[in-house]
Design brief:
The chain has 12 helices and 13 strands. The chain is α/β, with parallel strands linked by helices. It folds into 2 domains: 177 residues, Glycogen Phosphorylase B (Rossmann fold); 172 residues, 3-Layer(aba) Sandwich (Rossmann fold). The strands form 3 sheets. Strands 10-9-8-11-12-13 form a 6-stranded parallel β-sheet, sandwiched between helices.
């Protein structure tokens, strides 16, 4: 159950689709119920085969194509009777009306229920705690998890029960750096950031970080490519022009995965300015590609980045600017971090994620035994 799914783009959409496909390859039968319409607006219960995943499009026509359908629960109930699943896996964000409807339907149907949060609940824990108590969810038979320990801590604060960690997964082999590549080749520190250009990801703050770093450096010592698209792009483009950053910052827009991998081959550092980053799949892809990752402490990125070993973790935007300037001026540190990142693969591949999912499903079933 997921509000969002392809063809929408974003972290949860991509991860739910990739997890479902990986589970099919592992021999499971997977049905996805989503409020996201198809590529041509298909909804109303249309079933699509997505590389073996049976996608049930339960969306309806909503303003701005929002993945919402308050009338979906009866169809959800009918599909649970028809499919008779061994487990229902709900993928939730802070605002996920479709997914939460699916959780209620599965709970009432007595189906083992696993719920994974793909978000940080900072700022909404008290409100969600009240909603959980009023809705009878505190102590309800469900296996609760989140995509990182940081995100799980917030979920635990809401429900007061053990919360598992079901990390996002990826095909590590797609992101292996070419051992023949040489990191050097540019006098500038080549930075890259891949994100949805939306306020939560802090694209404008990233430009401020770069401006701060530039005040600590000589001209021409740092460049940044921003990969991605979204509602903040026009404001970011205006700031680049008005602040005279056109020779430093390039907004490349949305790219395919192959194009992102190509961009990483010509970069040194991946910059992740988001504060509410539950996991950071783009940062993990960059880490698997051998890039040094500079990110905020207290986010899910700490699952796969160790400060001073394969990246730098900072407390605030000023610290991030100082970290970038330090990587420019301390070539030995950059070589050390990049060498470790290239020599040691992260562990968050599909083997780990699928095993964690199976453990959550077993925990969900045990809740009803």
């Amino acid at each position: 159950m997921s509000d969002c799914y392809a063809p929408r783009t974003g972290g949860i959409e991509t991860q739910v689709r990739d997890l479902a496909r990986a589970q099919v390859r592992a021999g499971h039968e997977v049905h996805v119920l989503t409020a996201t319409p198809g590529a041509h607006g298909e909804g109303g219960g249309l079933v699509e085969d997505d590389d073996g995943v049976q996608v049930h499009r339960l969306g309806t026509h909503m303003p701005f194509g929002l993945p919402v359908n308050p009338a979906a629960p009866p169809r959800m109930r009918a599909l649970l009777r028809e499919v008779a699943p061994d487990v229902v896996h709900v993928h939730a964000g802070v605002v996920s009306p479709f997914a939460y409807d699916g959780a209620r339907v599965a709970r009432r149907a007595g189906v083992p229920l696993a719920i994974t949060w793909h978000c940080m609940l900072d700022g909404v824990v008290p409100a969600v705690r009240v909603a959980a108590r009023v809705g009878g969810w505190r102590g309800a038979p469900a296996a609760l998890s989140a995509v990182s320990a940081a995100a799980a801590e917030r979920v635990r604060a809401v429900f007061g029960v053990p919360v598992g960690v079901l990390p996002n997964g990826m095909d590590l082999d797609q992101w292996v750096p070419d051992p023949a590549e040489v990191a050097a080749g540019s006098s500038a520190l080549r930075c890259v950031a891949t994100m949805r250009l939306a306020p939560r990801k802090r694209g404008l703050a990233l430009l401020g970080i770069v401006e701060d770093a530039l005040t600590q450096l000589e001209p021409g010592q740092l460049t940044l490519e921003v990969l991605g698209d979204g509602p903040s792009r026009p404001a970011m483009a205006r700031r680049v022009r008005r602040r005279g950053l056109s020779d430093v910052v390039t907004l490349r827009g949305r790219l395919s995965r192959d194009q992102v991998r190509a961009a990483y081959r010509h970069a040194d550092v991946f910059v992740a300015p988001a504060v509410l980053e539950a996991f950071g799949i783009a940062a993990l892809e960059a880490r698997a590609s051998g890039l040094v990752v500079v990110a905020r402490r207290g986010t899910g990125i700490e699952e796969f980045i160790t400060d001073g070993l394969d990246g730098l973790l900072v407390d605030d935007d000023a610290g991030m600017a100082r970290a970038l300037a330090r990587l420019v001026t301390d070539g030995g540190l950059l070589r050390s971090l990049r060498g470790h990142a290239r020599a040691h693969r992260p562990v968050q591949g599909w083997r780990v994620t699928l095993a964690a999912a199976q453990a959550e499903y077993a925990r969900a079933a045990a809740q009803l035994s």
